[in-house]
Write a structure and sequence with these properties.
This protein is about 0% helix and about 45% strand. It contains no helices and nine strands. The strands form two sheets. The chain has a five-stranded mixed beta sheet, with no helix packed on it. Strands 1-3-7-6 form a four-stranded antiparallel beta sheet, with no helix packed on it.
Amino acid sequence: QVQLVESGGGLVQAGGSLRLSCAASGSTFSINAIGWYRQAPGKQRELVAGSTYYANSVKGRFTISRDNAKNAVYLQMNSLKPEDTAVYYCNRLPGSGPFYPWGQGTQVTVSS
């Protein structure tokens, strides 16, 4: 069973940056099929970054990267905006198979 653990969130002012990390353990899997999602209060969870996909709202500001040696996926978030405030999760990309159990996510709060 794959376990996903997200970290790196926090409180940041608008315009600031954060780097999120997703560590995976358990069964063998491909980190190339892992992306980043987020869920803001009262909203549905949405995919923000995949292999080459970026949501329009984050294009040019967020960058996904992977470290195969560490079985880790990262999300560099620059020029953060208050509307980026959400809990961020990593998990399989759509079409890559069923979702793994969702981790607890990491809270990102951007103040104006």
